[in-house]
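Below is how a single chain appears once it has passed through the pipeline. First comes the sequence as given, then the structure the pipeline wrote out for it. We keep one example in the README because the format questions we get most often are answered faster by looking than by reading.
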Amino acid sequence: MRPLKPVESIPPQSVHLEDLQLLACVAQGDLEAFEQFHRKYFPKLMQFARRVTGDNEAAEEVTNDAFMVVWRTADRFEGRSKASTWLFGIAYRLSLKKRQKLARHKEDICIEDCVISDGKDTAESIIRQRDLAEALGQLKPELRAVVELTYYNGYLYTEISDILGCPVGTVKTRMMTARKHLRRILSDEQFPFSETAVA
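Resulting structure:
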């Protein structure tokens, strides 16, 4: 399995401006702008919430709740971060609350959502994907969130710091801890995460 590298995280300036314009319209009660923002971010936010909560139904509820917060509070968005950073921060906090309410120890991780396919549906590849999903499922939510935001959503450590509401140093420590934990569980060939994450 090829190592996963962080997704290219610097979006074109036009995307950032488009999001700011959408949120400005949402703040004025523009339902069409809200629907466009929802369509744009729902799939990624749903995957993120699923990985943090470990539950499909909880993830859907968290995702919908996050968008309702956007609808109600778009006028308070100050633009100091990207709109997506603000949205993922809302979803992260809601996901942690939902996870605490679930009070479950066993997590139901969807294999196909946790691993970027290497294009091979061989038995060996499927076993590797299952092992990786199980290893990710053993991480604490705050560690899994850092891995998710870096490798699957392409956020910089500084952006993750804003999303999680913690210092950049804490984000780096969590990434290091997550990698160490995954390294203990996975063999070298199963470990898909590049050691060079974006700062």
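The chain has one domain: 13-185.

See the next section for the split statistics.
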